[in-house]
C-alpha cells in the first residue's frame, strides 16, 4: 500500500490548500491518506477540511510537530503501507508530485528518500533528479525498509529537537543519499503561521524558487547537483 502521511494542528486555511493540491494529482487514488491531528482551539475547523482522507486520528494531547510526524508514519506502516509520502499541512505539491513519488518507489532500494523541495533558482527541466547527501522535510518519501533500517533513528536523537535536523545527521553519518528534483515539486505556504517559521524567515528562505506548475509524465534522469543546495 502507498500512503500519504500528514500532520495537522491549528492551520485549517493552509490545510485546505494542501488537500486541494493533492486532489489535483491524478495518482491520488493510488494512495491512502493518513492524518494525525494535534488538538487545538481550531480543531473543529480542521475536521471540516478532513472529509476525504481515508484515516484520521486525533491525539488526546498535543504530541508536537516532530513526534506527531513519527507517529503518523508508523501508524501507516502498522496499517500495511510499504511506501509513504509525508507532507506538513503548510506544504503544497505540484500536479505531478505523486507521479514522481511512484517513480521513486522503484528506486528506493538505492536511495534513502525522495525530497520534493529544491532550492534551485535557475531554469530547470522537469526531468532532472539530483542526488544529494542532505535532507529537506518539505515533502519527502521513503519505503518502510529505509525507515526501519535507517531513518527512524532521527527520532532517537535527543540533542536535536527538530526531526529534520536529526534526519540530516542520520543520513550524513550513514553516507546515505536522497533524490531531489531540480525543479521543485513542493512549496512552503506557511508564511504567517508556519512550522518553526516567522514571516521574515519565510521571505528569506522560502521564496523565489522554481516550482513545477504543469504535470510531467517522465522520463526522469538521475544526475549530480550542479551547485550547492
How does this model look, in words?
This protein is of the alpha/beta class and 229 residues long. It is 29% helix and 21% strand. The chain has one domain (2-223): Spore Coat Polysaccharide Biosynthesis Protein SpsA, Chain A (Alpha-Beta Complex), CATH 3.90.550.10. It is built from 7 helices and 11 strands. The strands form 2 sheets. It has a 9-stranded mixed β-sheet, sandwiched between helices. The protein has a two-stranded antiparallel sheet with strand order 5-10. Helix 1 packs parallel to helix 2.
Task: Please give the radius of gyration in angstroms.
Answer: 16 Å
**SS-based structural class?**
alpha/beta
Give the DSSP E fraction (strand runs of 2 or more residues): 15-25%
Backbone shape: globular
List the helices and strands and how they pair.
Elements: E1 2-8, H1 12-23, E2 31-37, H2 43-49, E3 55-58, H3 65-78, E4 83-87, E5 91-93, H4 97-105, E6 113-115, E7 128-132, E8 140-143, H5 144-149, H6 163-174, E9 178-181, E10 186-188, H7 199-205, E11 221-223
Parallel strand pairs: 1-2, 1-4, 2-3, 6-9, 7-11
Antiparallel strand pairs: 4-8, 5-10, 6-8, 7-9
Helix pairs in contact: 1-2
